[in-house]
Amino acid sequence: MTDISDHDITDAGEPAAEPQRTKGVDSARRALQILLEFSENTPELTVDNVLEKHDISVPSAYRYISLLRELDLIEEREKGRFVLSPQILRLSRAAETTIDFRAQVQPILNRMTEETGETALYLRRVNDSAVCLAIAESDHPISISFQPGNLMPLYGGAAAKLLLSELTSAKLTQYFNRLGSTLSKQEKKKLELDLEPLRASGYAESAGEVDRGVWAAAASVRTNGISAGALTVVAPDYRLTDEHKTQIAEAVRAGAKDFREVIAHRS
Question: Is 1 a member of any domain?
Fold first, then answer.
């Protein structure tokens, strides 16, 4: 996450809805949760780190770490300090081959950023979350929750709500059920009403729904009736005039149109 310039805009993101838990795999789940603790900001872990994050015993922590080492997913760099193994690079390359359209959308995002002077992103829905797959950052640093690879809720933000609006009525009801008490009944009802015009127009705007002080415009990208995601431009609300917002809206819609054409030509 990049630093903020000029004004302090803080992260107000909410956790994504938790998917239904698979029964009988608690040990596997714990091992994978430990593996997912690794990140760009946390490149190494110790047993103490694992114990701080997970309510398990010391023997259990060592057992999970031993399993991850056995599978060649992590290795001990120094005594008691564990890092991801090169095996992860193979998984990363495999993931890259399945991320559709990232290479195709990047030039479009770059152009959107050049035209607007603001950060442009490409998002897709993954289960109950929105994930950023590509980004073109502006010369004005801004702190936002949507960063490549980050999973974010579908119920907040222009692009995420566009992705949510594409669910059928039955699937939307199932999604709300999985949310549980994350949103109140009134909030769910309001969200459902808000989704109707987004579904019809394929365009959305939001202000401070994910990150405080951040305004966003987004357009959905569908081809042959199938969703390819959404393009969005985000910017600090304090530096945007109505004219600039209009310019951003036009750039977002044009970017989505160009992206649809690229996808259609590719297929």
Answer: no
pTM score: 0.65
What residue type is 120 in one-letter code? Answer: A
Q: For residue 227, what are the domain limits?
A: 100-266
Which tokens sit at 169?
A: 């009525």
Instruction: Output the six-digit token pair for 219.
Output: 């357009």
CA dihedral 25, 28, 30, 33 (to 10 degrees): -120
Distances (CA, A) of 215 to 133, 144, 225: 20, 11, 28
CA dist., res. 216 & res. 213, Å (int) = 10
- Whole-angstrom distance, CA of residue 150 vs CA of residue 116: 24
Q: Is 11 helix (H, G, I), strand (E, B) or coil?
A: strand
pLDDT tens string 86-112: 888 778 766 655 556 888 899 999 999
Number of domains in the chain: 2
- Strand ranges (E), the chain: 44-45, 74-78, 81-84, 119-126, 129-136, 151-153, 203-207, 214-223, 226-236
